[in-house]
Amino acid sequence: MPEDDEEGGKSLQSSSREVFRPIDERRYRIDGQRESATIGYGFNNSGLMDMGAGYNFAQLQQEIFNRSSEKVDWTLCKNEWRVHDIYRVGEEQVCLCGHHPIFQICELKNEVTRQRADVGNVCVQKFIGLKSKRLFAALKRVELDPTRSLNKEALELYTHLRVIGAQDAEEYLSFYRKRKGVSEDQMKFKVAINKKIVAYAAKKAADAAAAYRALGK
Ligand SMILES: [Zn+2]
């Protein structure tokens, strides 16, 4: 079956070229989109099928392997990575997979090599399997309305980044899902935390955009 997913890691070798597999010609003719997505790469990742053109999984995988300790087994390799920070940029950037434009960017960090990789939100979820969508959703929610709540994932992220303290995160989590019975002090506290995080994310985005421009891309 050419549609095994990449999780097994069986077909993966140290070079992206070796991932190549012939594509079933029949399937390739029925679906025009599949053609543009697979020509030249021919890898067997089912996740690519609904991604459309421009996302090059083999390229992304190679870039991630290059920054990882594990160089062969994709599943083990992926486990080395965490979402370190997220930001949305106003000017388009290019994903590690070559896809552009991307506006929602995840700064990934490898916990073994300490290396970084900036990857688009879609690829992070589809190919690396990290739950970045919920982070972007939480941030957007409180940007639009600071009386609403972040989620646990976002609070963990910003605690890790030391934008907020662990005790504040704990306090927030003690009432953030309640619809009723939230005191005025709790609401003020939550809004203050939300605003702090929104301000941090805005600065992060501005800094990242400036750094990206400095690279001359
Ligand atoms: Zn990508």
Tell me what you see in this structure.
This protein is of the alpha+beta class and 217 residues long. The chain is 46% helix and 12% strand. The protein contains nine helices and three strands. It has helices spanning 25-30, 32-38, 57-66, 74-79, 121-128, 133-144, 152-160, 166-175, 184-214, and strands spanning 81-93, 102-110, 116-120. It has a three-stranded antiparallel sheet, sandwiched between helices. Strand 2 (102-110) and strand 3 (116-120) form a beta hairpin. It starts with 24 loop residues before the first helix and ends with a helix. Residues 55, 60, 95, 97, 99, 119-120, 123 line the site of zinc ion.
Lay out the secondary structure.
Blueprint: H1 25-30, H2 32-38, H3 57-66, H4 74-79, E1 81-93, E2 102-110, E3 116-120, H5 121-128, H6 133-144, H7 152-160, H8 166-175, H9 184-214
Antiparallel strand pairs: 1-2, 2-3
The structure holds zinc ion.
The site of zinc ion (ZN) has 8 residues, from strand 3.
